[in-house]
Design goal:
heterodimer; A: mainly alpha; about 70% helix; about 0% strand; B: mainly alpha; Rna Polymerase Sigma Factor, Chain: A; 10 helices; about 75% helix; elongated
């Protein structure tokens, strides 16, 4: 005789089998003493086990938990979670004095204005770049019309000086 | 208890909206099941009470992370299991207690009885069941408790233990085989004694 497998017997005892399968197990148990004994042993064990661990919580269990929960909730109310902000991750500048901050801002502003106005190259840049015609061409394409005139006069002047010295 | 998960989900959403007092209904509903589970792992009444309280606190703090894909009880028992494992580990690190005092698998039935004053131990049957239970490995005992005491399905047990369904089935099958063997041996012995009387 083929016995009912352990999983099916287990599901039968936990009332998890569909009606048709349950009926099949019931019919089998009527004719199989071995499976009947297995079921009976498991029933005894489970009933005793449930008694064995039937411990109960202490009387103040719920009140203790709720006391902690209320404290937790109150703490969360006092320190609500803020939305993400990049400023939270930047260094705190509040320790700086206002005059120092104003001076730094003014210096940065001046530097910016100066840089934006100083597109004309310095003389040293011109003389360094005029010894090669290829370089001159490159430089000329880099700057505007006025700058180009300035470049040409500088180049001619330097070349004139060189020729005078050679002759 | 089946079919009450929707109720739990509604309660949880209200708690998350700020009705903290509603958490009491959750605690009242599941306190005994969580305590029993902790007790089956720790075998110490006072300690399992502390563990269960901690479980409800941790569950409250992690409540926004609960997803209704799993039953609330399953989620709660997973927290309980981790809490008990943590407590067992901490005790193992404590120099004042040695390993024999900590691991339930190594505890004698007498020790269990001392730590459970509310139990009326004295029945031979119960002592036998206790000995059989303590004779099982931790993982077998855990799966038996979840199935026979907590009444969880195989799928739910797999979620609590964070393992596969096949693993649950295999553990349960082996644990049941051991239990059957011990129980039949005990019952045979008992019937021989009765016949002798």
């Amino acid at each position: 005789m083929t016995h009912i497998n352990e999983e099916t017997l287990d599901r039968y005892l936990h009332e998890e089998l569909p009606a048709a399968e349950r009926q099949r197990v019931v019919e089998h148990l009527e004719h199989c003493a071995e499976c009947r004994e297995t079921v009976s042993v498991q029933k005894i064990f489970t009933a005793e086990l449930q008694q064995l661990v039937s411990t109960k919580t202490s009387e103040d269990f719920v009140s203790n938990v709720m006391k902690e929960i209320r404290a937790d909730a109150a703490k969360a109310d006092r320190n609500p979670k803020k939305a993400f902000s990049i400023f939270d991750y930047l260094p705190d500048l509040s320790s700086f004095y206002a005059p120092q901050l104003a001076a730094i801002s003014a210096a940065l502003l001046l530097l910016f204005v100066q840089l934006s106005q100083s597109s004309i190259p310095t003389v040293s840049t011109v003389t360094e770049s005029t010894y090669s015609e290829a370089m001159l061409g490159e430089e000329l394409t880099t700057y505007g019309y006025d700058d180009r005139n300035f470049y040409l006069s500088a180049v001619l002047g330097v070349e004139g000086l060189i020729q005078e010295e050679v002759s | 208890m089946k079919g009450s998960n929707e109720e739990d989900i509604n309660t949880i959403s209200l708690i998350l909206k700020g009705d903290v007092e509603l958490y009491e209904t959750i605690v009242r509903k599941y306190q005994q099941r969580v305590k029993r589970f902790c007790f089956s792992m720790l075998y110490d009444d006072a300690l399992s009470d502390d563990a269960a309280q901690e479980v409800f606190l941790k569950a409250y703090r992690a409540l926004s992370g609960y997803t209704p894909e799993a039953k609330f009880l399953t989620w709660l028992l997973r927290i309980a299991r981790n809490q008990c494992i943590d407590m067992i580990r901490k005790r193992k690190r404590t120099a004042t207690q040695n390993l024999e005092e900590i691991s339930p698998a190594h505890m004698s039935a007498d020790h269990v009885a001392v730590n459970r004053p509310m139990q009326e131990i004295g029945l031979e049957n119960r002592q036998t069941i206790e000995a059989i239970l303590l004779g099982l490995s931790d993982s077998y005992r855990e799966v038996i408790i979840l199935r026979d005491v907590q009444g969880l399905s195989y799928e739910e047990i797999a979620k609590v233990l964070e393992c596969s369904l096949d693993s649950v089935k295999a553990k349960l099958r082996r644990a049941r085989a051991q239990i059957q063997e011990h129980m039949r041996h005990f019952m045979d012995t008992e019937s021989v004694i009765r016949e002798g009387e």
